[in-house]
Design goal:
The protein is an alpha/beta fold. Helix content is 26%, strand content 23%. The strands form seven sheets. The protein has a five-stranded parallel beta sheet. Strands 13-12-11-17 form a four-stranded parallel beta sheet, with helices on one face. A three-stranded antiparallel beta sheet has the order 6-7-8. Helix 1 runs parallel beside helix 8. The mean pLDDT is 97.
């Protein structure tokens, strides 16, 4: 019996664990290590600040699901790994492995600019989303200018766009929109680049949205400093702000950066081939955000990264599980699908409106690339949320 240890239990780690056990059955022991017993549907965090969702609506216990499917769950913090000894060290003990899967997700780099951590809100965690909810309750008592966007080196522009349009709708619902100057700031070369080199009609569509909703936008800029009542951009522009929400860049987690034998990149990501196998360590694999992704484009003025969303994380988790099983059976041919060739599947919520984004490849060249606006209601986003929560609660990782 081969033993695989998976570090991280979100989209990529959960999928890899369930698929590996489903296909490997009793010939494969699977151990998943994660600090939290809860699975969180991260894309819906954008709704938490506006009370459209509570954390309990978009989370559930994953430990019971994993155990029911034959995966051993260890609630612990993974500290380091020694790839020579093939040993993962946690605060609850040590775990030996034949294969290691790094599915650790990101660490947020708040120190990208002075004041980001102190004065800007971040919605990418349950705690951050709830703090933002509380801040908005205070803000509506004394409204004023608002700055929303992404910092230099950020890759998660989509969530920031979603928050922007949800914020605009919330301001109208609170009857304070006329009191608020709303600014969007982004390092993107143009509106709708999204870190994937754009989509047909994306720029013109988003320019139309900005004009329709009276939102000022600033492209090809980074954040110089955030103050309590100001945001200073790298081009020298000073924006007054009574409420600021920014998406900072992601870097590798401490488990990776504290493990020199993982031979990670300077940013803490795992260098892998198109099979998601470590380029130098044949029994180490990576899935999801932990994967090092090379950009197929060069940002014009301000650096930014590519998004690592739930769909590619889910896909890479499945590929890793399949390839570990092939290696265990002595097969030479592994499944390959470069990150940029994974389909781009996303639904951008625009405040009870939505834009459905689909492409046959995440990066160019593409033969199919569509952006379909739905101005009536964001039912596709809601259906996607309900479907993913349903399939994950039941451990049906093989479903798309």
């Amino acid at each position: 019996m081969k033993t695989t240890v998976i570090v991280g239990g979100s989209f990529a780690g959960m999928t890899a664990a369930l698929e590996l056990k489903r296909k490997g059955k009793n010939e494969h022991r699977v151990i998943l290590i994660d600090k939290s017993p809860l699975f969180l549907f991260i894309p819906s965090l954008i709704w938490v600040p506006f009370k459209r969702r509570d954390i309990k609506d978009i989370s559930f216990r994953k430990d019971t699901i994993l155990q029911r499917k034959g995966v051993e769950f260890v609630q612990a913090e993974a500290l380091t790994v020694d790839t020579q000894k093939q040993l993962v060290v946690t605060d609850k003990g040590e775990f030996a492995y034949d294969h290691l899967v790094v599915a650790t997700g990101p660490k947020v780099k708040y120190d990208i600019a002075p004041g980001v951590e102190e004065f800007a809100h971040y919605i990418g965690t349950p705690n951050g989303a709830m703090k933002t909810r509380k801040a908005l309750e205070e803000f509506k008592k004394n409204p004023g200018p608002v700055v929303i966007g992404a910092t230099q080196n950020a890759g998660c522009m989509g969530a920031a766009y979603e928050f922007l349009f949800n914020m605009e709708k919330w301001l109208r619902e609170q009857n304070i929109r006329k009191k608020v100057d709303l600014h969007w700031v982004t390092p993107e070369d143009y509106l709708g680049h999204f870190g994937i080199d754009g989509m047909p009609l994306a720029e013109s569509m988003l320019k139309g949205f900005m004009k329709m909703f009276n939102i000022h936008f600033h492209t090809q800029v980074g954040i110089g400093e955030v103050k309590e009542d100001q945001v200073i951009l790298t081009d020298g522009t000073v924006l007054e702000s009574r409420f600021t929400m920014l998406m900072p860049p992601f870097i590798g987690v401490d488990f990776v950066t504290h493990s020199p034998s993982l031979l990670a990149t300077p940013n803490g990501y795992i260098p892998v081939g198109d099979d998601y196998r470590h380029r130098e360590l044949p029994n180490v694999w990576a899935a999801g955000i932990a994967v090092d992704v090379k950009l197929p484009f060069t940002p014009a003025k301000v650096p930014f990264a590519s998004p690592k969303t739930g769909y590619p994380s889910d896909e890479t988790g499945k590929i890793v599980a399949e390839n570990i099983l092939r290696v265990s059976r002595g097969e030479q041919k592994l499944k390959e699908k470069a990150w940029g060739k994974i389909p781009g599947v996303c639904i951008m919520d625009c405040g009870k409106k939505e834009v459905i984004i689909f492409s046959n490849h995440l990066f160019k060249p593409r033969t199919i690339a569509l952006m379909i606006p739905n101005v009536l209601y964001d039912f596709s986003k809601i259906l996607l949320e309900k479907y993913f929560l349903w399939k994950t609660r039941r451990g049906l990782s093989y479903l798309p």
